[in-house]
Amino acid sequence: MKKFLAISLLAVMFAITACSGDGGTASTGGGTSQAGTASETAAGGDSADNNQGLPDANLTVYFMGATVASDTEVVAAANARLAEMGYNITITPIWGDWAAGTPIQMALDTGDNSVDIVFTSSWAVNYVPNANRGNFVRLDNPDNNLLERFGQDVRAEIPEFLWQGFMTEGTQGHGLYAVPGHKDYAQMYTWDVNAELLDELGFPFDSFDWSYATIFDPRLVEAMEAFLVARPGYYPFQIGPEGFARSLSNSDYDITGLGIFHFGFDPVNPALPERPEVITTLENPDYIRLLETFYDFFNRGFINPSVSIPGEADAANSAAIDSGNYLISSMAYAYGHEEFAQQQRGIDSRFPPMSAPIISTISVQGSGYAISIYSQQQEQAMRFLNAFYTDSELATILTYGVEGLHFERNADGTITLDQDMRSQFAPWRNGTGNIFILPPLDVEGPDFYERFRAYNEAGTPTAFLGFVFDETPVTNEMAALRNVVAEFSPSVTTGSVDPATQVPAYLERLNANGLQRVHDELNRQLAVFFGE
Amino acid sequence: MTAVSKNIASTKKGRVNSISFGAELVMHIILGGFALACVIPFIFIIIISFSSADSLAEVGYSFMPIEWSLIAYRAAFDLGADLWRSYFNSFFVTTVGTILSVIICVMYAYGLYRRDYPLGTFFAFIAFFTMIFGGGLAPTVMVIRNLLHMADTYWALIIPMLVNPFNFFLMRTFLRVSIPESLIESARLDGSGEFRTLVSIVVPLAKPGIATIALLTALSYWNDWFNALLFIRDSSLYPLQYLLMQMQTNVDFIRRNAAILGASANIDFSALPSEGLRMALCVLVVLPIAFAYPFFQRFIVAGLAVGAVKE
After folding, report:
1. Between B288 and A38, where is the model more confident?
2. What count of other Cβ atoms lies within 10 Å of the Cβ of residue A205?
């Protein structure tokens, strides 16, 4: 018995020791790194003046899209830079990868006060819903205007319409709940064409004008017929459940998120709405013509039937496009995507624009940083964001690493990355707050950011930029409509079913689930928006 | 074969509860079909994991791939330290968690089993109450993270699943069915203390029940990824399931949003795990726990049989 008790006790002691393990010490591999205290780092600086009596802070900042195995030197350099700037702030970055959206959201939803600043966007850690739910601090709150008190530099640095695009409803009223990311904010729909194969099939790429209307060109049908003969078992037209159908010329994203409303703008002056009130896309004759074309393509065997199965479209499309076994597709283009496509596919893919680049509420919300409502250091968090968005040296450290270790500076102002070190430390540049204060890479050339700016400036703000739909008055209807959309959209928008019979059925179900109420509410809010 | 079973076999016609050959055949077909439906997906995963990348690109998922390949497993083992570290984490958490959880369960259930324990009803209610009303996610996170400061330690993966009221009642019922209270009385008359009675008399007799609880608990720990999502940010502490889940999410996200992410996303598409690799990882995750079943099986069958005996 004594022996048994002794062994049990030893086992429990071993477990306690092992479990306590290395928690709380510095870690690597995409995890967190503990920083020294702010007072240690800031010692000797002129912090007393700059810090306005705020207590020392160690901020946890949750980034996204990073591949980081080791960050010890980077964190030390970033904290040293903050100290040099006179801030009594240190940071502990969490280098989230592309799967980080879920843990960040979980941290917000569970009231985790160990996280101070989080990445947010319109596509991950969704900005508007989190502001609505009260997860973010309102930065321009009249009762405590953090932007005015601690963020005047970043306020001036970021273009005004980006701030406009980030205005939204939240638990602390209508205002700003994050600092917008300053990157590619213009967005356009483009074709994705396998030009190499198209030429091989006898249809030179340049013989098409590749406007939006090219989808109706009979020669495109001929090319796809030829594809079926040349590549049996594959499908020439890769279409997502929303993809092409959402790319109606001269229309903004459906800001309700349902994908059933047509936010048309004036093609001559995109800053004006096409009509004072939005309509449902199913009432738009251009859209119906597009669905009929897809149905025809589907019947001809141009479209993979599996794309109508929810969740299957992305996998089916990606597999075909990655292997070069496709002819045409469409995409929401991001600046520089060609480089990716070449690397990924190893073929001559081209991306002619379907329509001009637009600047919309959705596109400007492509990235940003918000302060968690559960942060105990909100004022210091705002001060850090101000520095992060405006200090080139700090931003460069947190994006490219330490000079002399991770990169070298060149005489022309570019930098050359050490590729071995880059495999250890590679944050996502577009997820950095303000990419325009970063040095260009040598492969991009010294004029990279001029070209980038030109791309952005070619974008036209749509009439709906800054409009955010507040669904609070129609919450139940929106929930019901989402279910109807999930049921019908994958098949109707990919040509899998006959629009002549299914569009009326789709509309009937939408109407039975409160479409009119949401439509009325949407137009009411738009009237207020345009009235303002 | 026992005398009773011989007797039943020799008087097949007249045996109690016998069914006709046709009905038996139908039952076998239905149950066999059900068993196949359970096993086929896993067999399919194994086949895909051994399919070559070309085969997956050309014919997709198929029971008969064009070409077999070990490349997915080579890629999985190339993950190196991350994979093995996660394997260790899962084994460690499962082993320690299961041992501690079973110890707590047996001790708690023993208290509930003893009808002469005055606080038995109270503690039964306490346990039962948590089965009906949970504490909720946010308070759980706050307790583990802020109160106990267990984030980024193994404890965060062990403690939240340590106490399972369902297992308490399962064990209590098992003890009541299989161990007569007169045995406890006898032990006491022979001078055995409570702890010795539990360890030397109750536990050996309760092996089938304990094995059942241990298997259920080990399964829960092995398959858990949610606690890692909530509490673990240090990748060296990721359990295997979380590593797999994260890898899957990462790849899905990149493939879906490659265009939106822009040129700076620094994604090496050739390095993204293929379908084959993901299936190989599924196989590697499932195999260890699948091997645990035969070990526990004889106890579980014995445990099931205990309740069937009529006195």
Report:
1. B288
2. 15
Contact A139, A379 (CB under 8 A): no
* Domains, in order of start, for chain A: 42-183+366-466 (3.40.190.10), 188-356 (3.40.190.10)
- State both tokens at A178: 């994050």
Burial of A407 (0-12, 13-18, 19+ CB in 10 A): buried
Q: What does the pLDDT look like over A216-274, one tens digit per residue?
A: 999 999 999 999 999 988 899 988 655 565 556 677 888 888 888 988 888 778 788 87
Taking only the tens place, the pLDDT of each residue in A125-168 is 989 889 988 999 999 999 999 999 999 999 999 998 899 889 98
The neighbouring-strand residues paired with A215 are none
Provide the H-helix boundaries in chain B. 3-10, 21-49, 53-59, 71-78, 81-113, 120-132, 137-142, 155-158, 165-178, 181-189, 194-196, 203-205, 207-223, 226-231, 240-261, 275-306
Distance separating alpha carbons of residues B141 and B149, to the nearest angstrom: 10
Q: Smallest CA–CA separation between A48 and chain B, in Å?
A: 31
Rounded-to-integer distance, Cα A163 and Cα A152, Å: 13
Calpha distance A438→A451 (Å, rounded) = 14
Model pLDDT, residue A20: 45
By C-alpha distance, which of B54, B175, B168 is closest to B108?
Answer: B168
Residue A125: the pLDDT is 92
Does the CB of A216 have a partner CB in chain B at under 8 Å? no
- What is the value of pTM for the model shown? 0.75
Residue to test with chain A: of B221, B266, B275, B279, most A Cβ within 10 A? B266
C-alpha to C-alpha distance for A52 and B220, rounded to whole angstroms: 51
A 100-129 residues inside an 8 A Cβ radius of B: 101-103, 106, 109-114, 123-124
Residue-wise pLDDT tens digits, A386-422: 999 999 999 999 999 999 999 999 999 999 999 888 8
* C-alpha angle A271-A276-A277 in degrees, rounded to nearest 5: 120
Q: Tell me the C-alpha distance between B104 and B102, whole Å.
A: 5
3-state class (DSSP) for residue A280: strand
Chain A residues with CB under 8 Å of B237 CB are 23
Indicate left, alpha or beta for A495 from its phi (over 0: left) and psi (-120 to 50: alpha): left
Q: What pLDDT score does A243 carry?
A: 54
Residue A413 forms contact with B (CB below 8 Å): no
Give CATH for domain B81-231.
1.10.3720.10
A407: DSSP letter: E
CB–CB of B261 and A99 under 8 A? no
CA B120/CA B106 separation, integer angstroms: 14
* pLDDT value, residue B61: 75
B233 CA to centre of own chain: 24
Is the pLDDT at B123 greater than 90? The verdict is yes
Burial call A235-250: b when 16+ CB within 10 Å, e when fewer: bbbbbbbbbbbbbbeb
Alpha-carbon gap, residue B291 to B283, rounded angstroms: 12
Q: Taking 50 as the threshold, does the pLDDT of residue B227 lie above it?
A: yes
**Domain extent listing, chain B:** 19-79+250-307, 81-231
SS3 content of chain A, % helix, strand, coil (to 5): 45, 15, 40
A323–B236 C-beta distance less than 8 A: no
Task: Nearest chain B residue to A110 by CA: give it.
Answer: B138
Low-confidence residues in chain A, pLDDT < 70 = 1-49, 240-249, 309-317, 336, 339-340, 343-344, 532
Reported ipTM: the value is 0.70
Instruction: State the SS3 of B220-256.
Output: HHHHCCHHHHHHCCCHHHCCHHHHHHHHHHHHHHHHH
Contact: B235, A31; criterion CB under 8 Å: yes
